[in-house]
What does this fold into?
Amino acid sequence: MEPSQTQSERSRHKRPERLENGEEEFVFERAGRDDRAANGSGLDERTGSRRRRAAPPASPPAPPEATPGPAPASRGVSLGTALRRYPILALLPVVVFAAAGITLGLRRPSTYTASSTINVGAPDINSQATPGYALAEQTLASAYSREVTSQFVVNPLARRMHISRAAIASRLSSSAVPSSPTFTINATGPNKQSAVALAGAATSALRHYINVLNQGETSSNQLLTRYRNAERTADQMSSESGRLDGKNSVNPGSVSGKRRREARVAAQVAQLQANALGQQFTTGSTSSRGAIIQVLNPAAAATSDRNSITERYGVIGAAAGLLLGAALVLLVANLRRKRWPAELA
It folds into this structure.
């Protein structure tokens, strides 16, 4: 039998005590905790009963630890911001390069170009009304324009002008007018006179080659030679007949009448032959040609390419300066962006 407890001891066991965490705990519970800590059990040594253990206060969950990630990369300065920041630096290369291009174009030697316009075909109404004639003219014009730089035109020009064939070929070009029986011959040169002379010579050489190709010029030359020989023979026959008549007039009976008649007939026959050849040369030589070549606009002036080349070089220089200026302002802006105010960065 345990000794009886006094009133003060019972009240002490029943009176709760406040702990540090703000909760209340009876004294006997604290004593039981001490006993359990001493003997490793949850039983009360005095009563032998298991006491209820007060639940520990709930602690707030610990915040998750942030995993370290890669440092954010610094963004570069945009082109628009860089241009607003350094406009003069962007425009300076444009001005310098454009001026350099214009200067180079002005200092470059000028090239002059002269042109001749050639028409293929007869201009008469009857020929134009022939079915298929217009299409044939266009086909011939395209074919003849390609012959301008052929050896049949370049070689005679080189011999005539004492210039190498490569130089002649590089200075000549041609272009056919679409849906038209015309084409142009273009010739270049270091000055106006040389360009005009080469265009005229090329036109003559092409006409000669086309006439020879169509056998028109050869036939005409042959007819003209035969006509000259026939006229010469007719003059000789007429002179002989006149000499015989004069001799017989001075000394009657010295020349027989038969001889005089034969000389007179021979002169008349020779004249008839000469007249026939002349008529054939006048009317028949043109019909024997394949195509008629007409020079509509002969080369009389030449134009210079100085202005177009200067403008082209200036535009190229300005474009190059624009690219360089953009790259330059981007480089400078990214190198100096730490010095900018926060609202401009």
